[in-house]
Amino acid sequence: MVVFALSYTLLTSFPVTGIRKHKVNFCSVWVSRKFPKLSNDVDLHQTGFKSDLLEYLSAYRNIGLGEWVERIKKHDLSEAGVNLVASVPGGHCGRDMLKWGHMKLRKLLSQHGPSSSMVSSGWPVIGQFSSIGSLGPSSTHWLTGEWLTSLSATHGTGITATKTAKLNLVFPTVENVQNSLEGYPAGGSIPYSSQNAHKQAYLTNYMCQWKAASVGRSRASPHIKTYARVSDDCSKLSWLLLTSANLSKAAWGGLEKKGTQLKIRSYEIGVLFTPKDEVAYSNLTFLFAVSDSACIELELLLV
User: Is 273 helix (H, G, I), strand (E, B) or coil?
Assistant: First the structure.
């Protein structure tokens, strides 16, 4: 979902997790800085963020969004300070493959991510999410294959890189749900079918338990979706993606037809923080539950 507020300037807000009434969830929202109007309604320096946002909104083919598309065109979004990573349903081929889903993330990390000389293979990719889809019969089918390849990309590696990082996936346990502020009803917003769980037993090799004791939120049912790559000593963050995308091929896309098409089945949107954004976000702090014993606090020390 995207929320816009308009006065003399434009403000964008992406509630990139579902916020449900009467639910006590651990959620997240990215709010942009205020964007000024263009002096002559002509944007001579249109950024990737603006063009990506306009293309995403246009993909809905919703007449009601037309007014906002026109208003966005009249504003300067060059100081957004983030990249947009979105998904729209369809079979995307050719250059369009690199516009959406995990392939868009792969492209952005190869362009703006940390260099491979500064990020070792020991730096894990960490994912937090509130739903798991059908990922295939083995981890290499999608999870540690094309998807992790995209999230392991570094500057200059290109979109055909094959080297992957260590993977940690943070997801609530039955005990987390049982002892949450809502009790078992909290599980209604953390779907993962038993059928998929039995087929994907390999996921337990990558699972880490949800805990946020340092901020008193261990009992808040997590509905947040964040993906990041951190140093092995958890002192540095190489990039962070705050998104609506859960762990599923429907959200991130799956390669088909011998890798010539990316099939996506849902609309998603997220913002990516990379090393080039360090000045704009040098004072932010993020929290990641990366093990079953601690919630690690990280300052945004982009490398």
Answer: strand
- As a whole number of angstroms, the distance between CA 117 and CA 34 comes to 36
- Strand segments, DSSP code E, in 48-172 are 83-87, 90-93, 125-128, 167-171
Residues in the chain: 303
pLDDT at 214 over 80: no
Please say if the pLDDT value at position 7 is more than 50. Answer: no
Residues 6+ apart with CB under 8 A from 16: 28, 29, 30, 225, 242, 243, 244, 269, 270, 271
- Asked if the model's pLDDT at residue 19 lies above 80, the reply is no
Asked if pLDDT for residue 36 goes beyond 50, the answer is: yes
Q: Are 285 and 220 in contact (CB under 8 A)?
A: no
Q: Is the dihedral of CA 20, 281, 154, 233 positive or negative?
A: negative
pLDDT of 225 over the 50 cut: yes
Q: Which of 37-51, 67-81, 202-216, 289-303 has the lowest mean pLDDT?
A: 289-303
Q: Give me the pLDDT at residue 261, please.
A: 98
* Neighbouring-strand partners of residue 83: 272
Among all chains, which residue has been given the structure tokens 């990280």? 298
For 190, half-sphere exposure in the C-beta direction (CA atoms, 13 angstrom radius) is 30
Compute CA 227 distance to the chain's CA centroid, rounded to the nearest angstrom: 5
Q: Return the number of other C-beta atoms located less than 10 Å from residue 29's C-beta.
A: 13
Q: Give me 213's structure tokens.
A: 């004791």
Q: Rounded to two decimals, what is the model's pTM?
A: 0.86
How much of the chain is in helix, strand and coil states, percent to nearest 5?
A: 30, 25, 45
**74, amino acid identity:** K
Residue 296 has pLDDT above 50, yes or no: no
pLDDT, averaged across the chain: 82
Tokens of 287: 């929290």
Q: How far apart are CA 45 and CA 6, in angstroms?
A: 21
CA angle centred on 188, ends 22 and 131, rounded to 5°: 115
